[in-house]
Amino acid sequence: MIKLLIADDEALVCIGLQSMLKWEQYNIEIVGIAHNGAQEEEMIDTLRPDIVISDIKMPIKSGLEVAGSVRRKYGRLPLFIMLTSYEEFQYARGAIEVQATDYLVKLELTPEALAESICRAISTLEAYQTMESYPKLVHRGNLQAQRDKFFIRLLSGLFENKNQYLLQKEDLEVDLSAPAYLVCTCRILGPDTVPPRGDKLVALCSSTVQMAKDTLASRSACYVTSLDLRNFALTLPVPGPDPQLWMQDIQKLLADMASVLHNYFNVTIIGAIGFAVEDPFLLQGSYLAARKALPAAVKERSFVFFTEGEALLQEHLLFDFSESRLEIRRAFEEMDTRALHSIISRMIEIFDGRADLLVPATDAACNILYMATSLLADGENMVEQIFEQEPEGYRAIYQMHTIEEITGWLVQFRDGCVRMLATRRQSYKEQVVKNVQEYIKRNLGTKLSLNQVADVFNFSPNYLSHLFSKVAGVNYVEYITETKITAAKEMMVRGEGRIYEISQKLGYESAFYFSKVFKKVTGLSPRDYIQQIEGNAGEN
């Protein structure tokens, strides 16, 4: 997707831009919101957006100063669309000098005008976007979405082991270094003026969650994860597990956030706060505690804290999803539609007519949903298609209050998933291998063991090895070796360091071992290869 950054010191302008267009229709993801020039430039450095919509006059640094600085660092990309409240020539001239693709006046801005400007920028981007003009552009196409999935897996206990969690945390650059963390589950209530479903509700809730992210952005290592239209989770850092160390501060932080969101959107935010854990890998316990306390928060229309000693969702004891999780994982990995149909059918039989199993049935359905979106290469898009006739899509599961509704959702998911996987089986496998290959190319400086990469992609090592060999036509180890040697040859052609420096950059333990592998693949030692390059250059 195309990555878009919005920068304006007026919060209402940022919110208006977010809701003015259906950005997904333009294959655009909003990756960040900046409220001053310094923050804008920092986000450009870290997020690498393709397009930036920037106000010209902002605190600390103007949009024109930022654009000029970015041009000097990165060349033609990202593209800038400049906004201003002033119709003065000096601003238009400044926008031209920094090669902005467009210059828009806020008071005259309409969805049609913004859409035209965005389409022009996309056309320009398609012409400019190459690795040479913006070498760090392609790092991860949808980093925020991947981080959301990471936290959903963490809160739902879907990591197979701690090593898998640590590898994905490092790969996604998730900072969880605070002494302790807790989870707060939040719910958006009202306003009565917005219909209970439809585009207006989607726009309201998505804008509310984005504003929550902006409001909490100054708090280090705080993460906001959207769970569905009206529910989101906060992962908050605290100084330790003792509630007396953080309870008052957390209460004030949440009250301030709720006040800001109420003032902007006329919504009421309520929530429940779980206990703190020193090991973030154990955050599922805090999340379950928060969920246990959520009914009290809804009743009181406020924020409440989980009381130590309360039983944690004892209903879960009536149905253990952990056994089914491994079977479903294998079915998704191997695209085994028969096994998937059998497993979900068995669950439906267990839940059918059991009103007392509503909570574990809902959790089981949500776990299956998360696994589909996490394990399948195009999982989220597939699930959206399965429920495209539903007013709220697959997210309708969070609004269901009877066991009949949950089992009906499971039936629809099962039949749609089996149908679509049967037709897309080969293309899914090809996409998985393509994603693995792209990951390898981005991380050539590491050892890239099969176990490590399998953990990053939520696969068992044996399955990934078999799938890679079958689809790529070469085994996993051979592919890594060939890719690293190809990269080494390119670095030698460009003169990027001595042999030992190149071997270090490519993650080899020693220059001797690198030279041995290089000669085995190419038939020449690295030194002979460099001399050959220099000889050819001399002849030309």
UniProtKB/TrEMBL annotation:
The protein's UniProt keywords, in alphabetical order, are: DNA-binding, Phosphoprotein, Transcription, Transcription regulation
What Pfam families does the entry give? HTH_18, Response_reg
Pinpoint the HTH araC/xylS-type domain residues. 434-532
Stretches assigned to the Response regulatory domain: 3-121
Q: Which residues carry this modification: 4-aspartylphosphate?
A: D55
Gene3D superfamilies the UniProt entry points to: 3.40.50.2300, Homeodomain-like
Concerning CDD domains, the annotation shows:
REC_YesN-like
User: Could you tell me which InterPro entries the record lists for this protein?
Assistant: CheY-like_superfamily, Homeodomain-like_sf, HTH_AraC, HTH_AraC-typ_CS, Sig_transdc_resp-reg_receiver, Tscrpt_reg_AraC-type_HTH
Q: By its UniProt entry, which PANTHER family does this protein fall under?
A: ARAC-FAMILY TRANSCRIPTIONAL REGULATOR (PTHR43280), HTH-TYPE TRANSCRIPTIONAL REGULATOR EXSA (PTHR43280:SF2)
Annotated protein name in UniProt = Two-component system response regulator YesN
Q: In which organism is this protein found?
A: Paenibacillus silagei
